[in-house]
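A common beginner's mistake is to predict each chain separately and then try to dock the pieces by hand. The better habit, illustrated here, is to supply every component at once so that their relative placement is modeled jointly.
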Amino acid sequence: MLSDTQSKICEAVETDFSGLKACIVNASLKPSSEPSHTDTLLDVVAEIFERRTVAVDRIRLSGHYLAPGVYPDMTEHGWEADEWPDICDRVIGADILVLGTPIWLGEKSSLAQAFIEKLYAHSGETNDKGQYLFYGKVGGCVVTGNEDGIKHVGMGVLYSMQHVGYTIPPQADCGWIGEAGPGPSYGDETDDGGRVGFDNVFTQRNTTFMAFNLLHMAKMLKDAGGLPAEGNVRTEWDDGSKPGWPNPEHRLDG
Amino acid sequence: MLSDTQSKICEAVETDFSGLKACIVNASLKPSSEPSHTDTLLDVVAEIFERRTVAVDRIRLSGHYLAPGVYPDMTEHGWEADEWPDICDRVIGADILVLGTPIWLGEKSSLAQAFIEKLYAHSGETNDKGQYLFYGKVGGCVVTGNEDGIKHVGMGVLYSMQHVGYTIPPQADCGWIGEAGPGPSYGDETDDGGRVGFDNVFTQRNTTFMAFNLLHMAKMLKDAGGLPAEGNVRTEWDDGSKPGWPNPEHRLDG
Amino acid sequence: MLSDTQSKICEAVETDFSGLKACIVNASLKPSSEPSHTDTLLDVVAEIFERRTVAVDRIRLSGHYLAPGVYPDMTEHGWEADEWPDICDRVIGADILVLGTPIWLGEKSSLAQAFIEKLYAHSGETNDKGQYLFYGKVGGCVVTGNEDGIKHVGMGVLYSMQHVGYTIPPQADCGWIGEAGPGPSYGDETDDGGRVGFDNVFTQRNTTFMAFNLLHMAKMLKDAGGLPAEGNVRTEWDDGSKPGWPNPEHRLDG
Amino acid sequence: MLSDTQSKICEAVETDFSGLKACIVNASLKPSSEPSHTDTLLDVVAEIFERRTVAVDRIRLSGHYLAPGVYPDMTEHGWEADEWPDICDRVIGADILVLGTPIWLGEKSSLAQAFIEKLYAHSGETNDKGQYLFYGKVGGCVVTGNEDGIKHVGMGVLYSMQHVGYTIPPQADCGWIGEAGPGPSYGDETDDGGRVGFDNVFTQRNTTFMAFNLLHMAKMLKDAGGLPAEGNVRTEWDDGSKPGWPNPEHRLDG
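With all components supplied together, the output reads:
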């Protein structure tokens, strides 16, 4: 699946990333039984990770029902079912989070938006140093479409991640789109037997850079035990203000 | 529910808007059994419409299951259930569409995003003049939150609407947010017995302007029989290109 | 400059648009002495307008110095020079405004942003009916780049226009971008003697639709004398509140 | 200028950040001779940095003329003057970059956009490890307005920074806005002698978190000599492709 350049780059890396865990989430709107173009580009990220002995856990969101709402378990807030509690530990337990999403009408998918709402649901929780839960983890974004919007979608996804506590390493966004208008999507077979986007240097380079920068930053943070708990501890600002605000980041659960 | 200023303005209007139909959609994440802050501001729009004898149909999205995907009926594309076909005629049949959404982490809700995906699902269909289906209709946007993001959310919502064919009249966005940080939401009761945002001149004025501009533009378009079918007819560009592109706007169904 | 399809469409139009005035603004970062890819696509819009006997005024922003700031004449607010007063009447006097901009890093150009700040500078002014100044006019957006971002840029531009009072007709955004990564820009010559994007049906169709929808809506509004002044008049909300807020739309100049 | 809580937090920090250099850029549209609300919040960041013995360099963009365009020196590309070359070394030489901007119509200022275009101008340059120039540096964003848009502005600013190579630490955005509608701006004096936003726990906490997370991450990266040059080196992808693409990130200058 990796190109020769990517394989060569992977082989030349000397840093030992073993012990790191990555969670790769696909917000494709397609049923989980169907192939996803976004998955095809996420495969590149996954393979780079695995070649460097990083554990990869992949989640296809369309295979799970996430009840609407910004609480960790929406069955406690009026919904009959919610599968987020079944998968949230896989996201929270990983050192690296990659969210892949298609583009529709220039926006991330509604499933990607729902996933971000779920990250936000946990944004008031703290780790054992009193920092927000996602401190010490790193995030990146993979976007595919056939038209337009990698950067716009990246803006929203990466913003959300850093806002809840993820670190965003350099060049943590990548993706593929075609020329304006309809056309094939990433990985579709071409008439000459190739596959769309596989030889796009820009896409493959950015995907590789993202993958390795996520690894380097995750390792750096893990080796350091996360960010020092100085100047960034929530409890130093808890002021007896009204608990129970609807915004998760302001909930005082501690 | 209307303020004295709003009531006086409503009474002074002489234009006859009867015959117009409005669909007001609420993308709150709360279960449909629970009150919604967004609904409280949508109530103002609905009441202005009804006082001017416009038929109002309200849809609470969280009470319906919209299967992921950009086809009009996702049960034909791998999903077991999809309630969009049950409600799409109410949206398509209205002259005016107002989408109300809360803000979470600076973005429209995932249900608002899913709704836009459903509008997009129909974006390749044409009316009897050969124009896209939503030509001749008008759209507006209501946004509430307690923090930040009315304009950003408005950008995405109104863009989507005009892209699929809605006309956006002047000042078609309105909303309420509070000061940066946690706090009450629109319509929450205050200690002195008032209700948050009800006396915010900016919010109430923009909501009123939006409501009347939607009415004026919808009537102007309806009286004219929509936009003339000159220079904006899809079939003049159909060129035998591959049908079945995944982007709805490029499907050739005609 | 127009394709055969576009020429044929233009010739078939029967509506008389004479008397309408259009202002086409190019926010390219290139010096005004250099050719601009964005201009090349704006040429299509201009030619459609002119074939339908609409007066076209074109402004290249990089040829004028717009002093930073959101007042109509920044020489009254601390800047030594400001050429906006020299050109603002050309914008305000037109029935149709088209803003063309390149994409850099997924965003509209800084000159496009400065232009929007200037529109906003006038957003508190009212017409003789007491409505905001831009009521009764229509706006559209043309975007070119070689990478990514038509829709994102369109969101911001069209949002700004409608917020200050422009009406946005259906499908008022268009543009051209290439496949992800570096490459030629709109209008660049290709090896086979063609020009990039000229045969892109999606781009040419959307540009044509935008041009005609702007014409239809501008004519409809002009024939009606603008929107009726009912429910959308600023003075009905003037409440003795503090004048001189920095936001132009809240200034009480009347 | 710091609150008691902030002072206490500063004093409790034990990490030695001396040797780090921060560049704080203000994209206010006001002439540099006038006070800026954005500066008032940037003062908090600057004071935290200085108390921890970090060198702070402040740049007020409105005091410099940045010629339009995405080359490091626009006098080589058709413009008569360009002050960017006078200040770019101050930005590039710093370990930490903070961009402060006001919000106008929900967007970052045109000067902020112009500044991002200048960062982008250098995005094809590489450091002595062959990585993009901004690798190893960290970025954050401060936003003030009186209405709406901290998060939207933050999305664009932080996206741009990471895309050209900055690392974004957790919670690298902060700001202040008031309730929807006109009103005072950050730092304005209130009737009771206070100053607007100074006692907003959300604003002050996020500003503090941002400041310290920038310090921690900058130190971590500096101590490590930046990110390892593995998997993220541009030259491994140089492929003899056409130099001179207009997008800076694709220029092959090496």
